[in-house]
Amino acid sequence: MKKILLSLAVLMAAAFTMNAQLSYSVNVGYANQATSSKVTIGNSQTITKDAMGGFNFGVMASYELMPNVAVNTGLQFDFAAKTDKDEIFGVETKVRAIAKDIEIPVRASYMLDLGEAAVFAYAGPAFEFGLVNKSVTTINETSTTLNAYGEDSAMRRFNILAGAGVGVLYHDLFLNVGYDFGLLDLNKNDNNGLHTSELKVGLGIKF
Asked: According to a count of CB atoms within 10 Å of the terminal CB, is the N or C end of the chain lower?
């Protein structure tokens, strides 16, 4: 995994030296992270789906291969969280889940020029590394933290996403919507499974 990230960093650094055909952008937006977990016990299989809302922001570099066709890469930071509350026999239980990760997307894009505006589409992989994935359970003001990336955890940090999206560009401002699906099973247990997907809606500016 470290070799993959290092190779990507070298490619990004090489691209940054080609200033004549290179443009940059920054973006921020809403992110929804969904999970689908599978638990197998004997002949019984249970699938549970969940989702957390949050935000993402990042910087991107776009290298134009030919008119209207480009390769885009950069660094993105994602944050998602949710809080569930329940009360049983007068005892309140609160569970706060938090996930943070970084992504290196590598997208191919095509832009259709409409004059002052343009529409574009993109597709390609993204390499994701989990920074934080934990839940904090509070019962009667006593909190317990479960770290999904702990030493004995069954969850993997590294994932490869396949995604696509569309957007509209007006002068230097753009709006885009994209969806990514995790290709790797993040659960280390052979009898269980965990896959993620992400929906993002973002705003950005090009330089």
From this structure: C
* Residue 70: partners with Cβ closer than 8 Å, 6 or more residues away: 62, 63, 64, 108, 109, 111
C-alpha separations of 48 from 31, 101, 116 in Å: 20, 22, 46
Taking only the tens of pLDDT, the chain with its 207 residues reads 556 555 555 555 555 454 448 999 999 999 999 999 888 887 788 888 999 999 999 999 999 999 999 999 999 999 999 999 888 777 888 999 999 999 999 999 999 999 899 999 999 999 999 999 999 999 888 899 989 988 778 899 999 999 999 999 999 999 999 999 999 999 988 888 999 999 999 999 999
Domain architecture of the chain: domains with CATH = 2-206 (2.40.128)
Q: Is the dihedral of CA 109, 112, 115, 116 positive or negative?
A: negative
- DSSP strands (E only) in the chain: 22-41, 44-66, 69-88, 91-113, 117-139, 142-147, 158-170, 173-182, 193-206
Of 147, 135, 165, nearest to 52 by C-alpha is: 135
How far, CA to CA in Å, does 102 sit from each of 19, 54, 169, 176?
25, 14, 25, 19
Cβ partners under 8 Å of residue 64, min gap 6: 21, 22, 23, 70
The conformation of residue 30, written as its DSSP 8-state character, comes to E
* DSSP type of residue 115: S
